[in-house]
Amino acid sequence: MSFFGLGKAVTMDLTYVGGEHQRTATVKSEQGAMDTLALFTNGDTISGHVHLTPSSGKKVEHLGVKIEVLGQIELYFDRGNAYDFVSLVREVAPPGELSSAVSIPFEFSRVEMPHESYHGINVRLRYLLRVTMQRSYGNTVVQEFKYWVRTTGIPPEVNHSIKMEVGIEDCLHIEFEYARAKYHLKDVVVGKIFFLLVRIKIKHMEVEIRRRESTGSGPNTYNESETIAKYEVMDGAPVRGESIPVRLFLSPYDLTPTYKNVSNRFSVKYYLNLVLVDEEDRRYFKQQEIVLYRHEL
Description:
Blueprint: E1 2-6, E2 10-16, E3 24-28, E4 34-40, E5 46-54, E6 60-62, E7 65-75, E8 83-93, E9 96-98, E10 102-108, E11 118-119, E12 123-133, E13 141-149, E14 162-168, E15 172-178, E16 182-184, E17 188-198, E18 202-215, E19 222-235, E20 243-249, E21 259-262, E22 266-278, E23 283-293
Parallel strand pairs: 4-13, 16-23
Antiparallel strand pairs: 1-2, 2-5, 3-4, 5-10, 6-9, 7-8, 7-12, 11-12, 12-13, 14-15, 15-17, 17-20, 18-19, 18-22, 21-22, 22-23
């Protein structure tokens, strides 16, 4: 697998030792395009070759070549002040001359990558390999090669059902129940909704999956919510005593695990939001947090 980049005096390329068998992840870039990146998990060894070629075909003098593994968290309202939670470096070539193409091996053994890659509304957590050829007079050549990290979670030993009520005095009384409170990313949310009292005209009802991203801390905390999915449970007026089943597949949606206070920088939570709309387009809703985890890469 190869990632291609252009420097000023030197063309830089990077290949992983896994070659065609290297695991990959297809993820959406910040520009909205789909990128295919090398995929690693916590504790993996990252190794391969850096390929350097003089762009002009002439000799290039340099002060050494190094490669870094970086894990960074960057808050979009504080750009330029990335927090490095992983920072490893290898000097892979001493000072000298580059007169022709050369391939230099590198290896970082059992790299600790405790957090997943994440691109959110106000924050991104990214991993990259940075290759630097030091040169005099400010002509240093730097190229970054991004990769993606996912980690698997441990299935919960206890996974209770969720039971809640929605009520408007003398008008509406609904009970709903979901089979579990914790789900893996390919799971199915199964539940039932019971109408115990219906004196308002319900037009339709839906279940939403909502993601809430919290960044910063204290008075500088920013919360952003977005609706990831909508599932129409019912279209039309229910009657007293009616029971409506819910069956919502998670796999089609772009979900991440729940992230709790990652490096004291951000959190990501998920909610099931039950929404009822009456004939006058008034909305009634009840929200319940669920926990998501990854059971496979």
